[in-house]
Amino acid sequence: MNVIAxxxxxIACVLIGFIGSGGEVGALIxxxxxxxxxxxxxxxxxxxxSKKIMVDLVKGMIGAIKGSPFNKAMYGELxxxxxxxxxxxxxxxxxxxxxxxSNPHESKIFQKYPRIAKNHHVTxxxxxxxxxxxxxxxxxxxxxxxxxxxxxxxxxxxxxPLGALQKxxxxxxxxxxVAAVLGIxxxxxxxxxxxEEIGHKVGAALVGTFLGILLSYGFIGPLAGRMEILGxxxxxxFRTAASAVMGFVNDLPPKVAIEQSRRGVTSxxxxxxxxxxxxxxxxxxx
Length: 286
Known about the structure:
12 helices
């Protein structure tokens, strides 16, 4: 919703300033200028990206509009889910976790926490972190390297569409100039016409430059910035999950492992100590 609210503010401020200075809104309406700029930007974006990056970019833009799912409630479910899993592993042995990790969609533990279960990236990360422990295929120091590598790859996949979108934003003022130059060419062809007609054509040409700059700094650039922030929030969430698992692998009790990971969460999402204790009691009572 922040993206929509911010866009509305940008449009409102531009219109208020323009109208307040004596301008008419109709002077800004030139659809073919927008087609030129938007078409060039889209073509350049398609040229520099692969199919996967384009798909990730669309998903990222939709996610930026919807907002981050990694809020305090999501962290709460993560801590409860991990505590229950680690508690089972500590009490019943690591093999008791095999059915939950191998088939999380049918796991009674994962089903208790819909925010975690519905996010297949998070579910796969948690199961992928626990699987080497259950199978005994990785030592604690090796597991730390595996998890860090996976988080690094996730970060790189976030930055690929983000970089493409930012480059598109950087190119929009140039495409605006292209549209403006085309408008001037049209104006020069009608230079012997009435002054009003020439003025209209020059105004249309200048709108191209205006739109290119506005789209770059008012919409696409900020959208790329928003996507970058959301990507960092997702990486922080994965690091929190990895921290809890690593604490458990290093023989910390489940409560201590969760407490350790809680301390690495930013203040807006981090549950208080008494809230965490209430989560533990809720899991133990279930």
